[in-house]
Amino acid sequence: MKSILFRPPYGIDHQPEYAEEVAQLPLAQDMGYLIVGQRIDPDDWSLRDGKPIPAQEIVDSVLRQADNGNIILLHDGGGDRTQTVAALPQIIDALREQGYQLVSVSDLIGKTRAEVMPLLAPEERFEARADGFIFTLFQWVRFFMGAIFFLGIVMVSGRAVIIGCSR
Known about the structure:
This protein is mainly alpha-helical.
């Protein structure tokens, strides 16, 4: 499956800081994507003293920003997401208590899930598999290069120890 939805990184769709950021937005539209923005971002991705933000702070931030409803941005990758996962049921319960109705983006724009996430065409499947193969190959090359450098460091250090001890 693929998605026709695109969320510009760093919120540049609603908080652009530079003209170059705004100039990039039509590119996604020209490629057939629907740009989906968000207004509620509790910064659940950020760290405080090297640790994830506590779940209650994520909940409080969402509830503070939830005026007249909007799309909430929560992250599911890129680090420890235990606090985001813990915050989600609390966010859902609190918003429902306030009378909000939670809907998917596809419902919000009046499309079915199949329209928003169509199946890949055969040539797209081939391209996706080729991309996967290339990225996996790149990952293995990086691993082996790292292992070779590590082995080289160990051998040079071992040689220095042996020479130093033999004198």
